[in-house]
Write a structure and sequence with these properties.
mainly beta, four-stranded antiparallel sheet, 1 helix, about 30% strand, membrane, cell projection, flagellar rotation
Length: about 90
Amino acid sequence: MDDMQPQHPETSHPFSSVPIEITISVGKARPLIGDLLKMGKDTVLPLDKRVDDPVELYVGDRLIARGELEEIEGDSSGQLAVRLTEVADLRDGL
């Protein structure tokens, strides 16, 4: 993602108040089909990432940012969040 740069929301854009779903990818698993068929409760499925590796944020299949998982403190304690470390230049193509 060479085009990652900090961006500021464009509040004057006509779509700026339309909600959008962002998928956060923490990793991928590649079990054998035989292992997949044996899975049950308490099965541990190893991912291709480590706990401290960055997560990737997608809109559809487009990578829009990378970040780090963290826990929200205060009233929402225990809830996961993502602190962005890289953001794509989303103005291109809009």
